Amino acid sequence: MSQPLKLGIAGLGTVGTGVVKIVQKHADLLEQRSGRKVVISAVSARSRTKNRDVDLSAYAWEDDPVALARRKDVDVFIEVMGGHDGPAKAATEAAIASGKDVVSANKALLAHHGQALAEAAEAKGHVIRFEAAVAGGIPVIKALTEGLAGNQIRRVMGVMNGTCNYILTRMESAGLPYETVFEEARQLGYLEADPNLDVGGIDAGHKLSLLAAIAFGTKVSFDAVDLEGIGRISIDDIRRAADMGYKIKLLGVAQMTGRGLEQRMSPCLVPADSPLGQLPGGTNMVVLEGDSVGQIVLRGAGAGEGPTASAVMADVIDIARGTRLSTFGQPARTLVDPIAAQATAPAPFYLRMALSDKPGALAKVATVLGDEGISIDRMRQYGHADANAPVLIVTHKTTRDAIDHALSRLPATGVVLGEPVAIRIESV
Q1: Which of 6, 202, 249, 350 has its CA 20 to 30 A from that of 240?
Q2: Do the Cβ atoms of 40 and 59 come closer than 8 Å?
Q3: Residue of 207, 219, 247, 249 with catalytic role
Q4: Is 89 marked active-site?
């Protein structure tokens, strides 16, 4: 009979307690599926006295996660504390140095230090698994590293932050402004302690950088992700986009182009009838495109106790079975430094602006766009009761640089009121 696989869990918040519950509830199932018992030896968290609605009495307690990582009765160190530095980093490094395998749900840690951690672990013949760090319960890491290993990946795309998707879909369904729904999300506990991690696109950007490393064989390059949050999206944008057959999503896109690796996390318009356009509430969706398989769509819960703990346990079971994979799908020493794309691939853009209601106003705007090589695909003007005429323009494919140059010139026309809005339209 194989020896039990002994776990040490650092962090007993939502995810950590979820892992404990799965181990306790499904002990027989885990043994049947992995061929050996999976047990918890010890745990660590900031407070021993907090009520976590789970029995921890059978496990040793360590106040210091680094001490937990060094315990001789721990085979797999499970890091679900969060944070890209401090205790999470120190404990993970200690676990690797002590000869442990690591399972992590910490996208920030891996986005900032994944290359160094992977090299250290692989040099010792150990693994770092992080299915739970990206898109919660969706098995996207396994899809890329295993199921699609025979494909050249063309594009990775998706909605990877449930809070932002909740805010945008709630704005649309309830007709509420961003500020109102933001506060609603805060009251419901959907936002991180630092809300900008969510609404600023940082959390989702961490996830995108990890997927890009696996998909394109590059070192993780979070600093090269072009980040734009959802704070500037208005209820008018959501309504006008819907009128033209689109939905607005905080969309991550990574693709290797002739200009280098393009990584961006920004609001985009997607067709309303597409899988991404129909994605509701806090759900996540990742779209993977390979040269042989075509397009694969993965959809599911992107956060929460059950889904994220499920992803942690998937990695634990692989380790129990003896499955040994490189952290990013190929040996870390073979990953190359990415060349960041200096410009994004051309795409259509949605432009919203208010014009003075006087003859020739549209012609002046069209002239500026034409001077920058931007052609208009379609345009819509809305009825108005004052001197401001709301106008929507959808362009043919163009570059973001051309759009930005045009926007910078529009105030000089004397007919554009306020600041125009430009949002990329992504093909899906």
Answers
A1: 202
A2: yes
A3: 207
A4: no
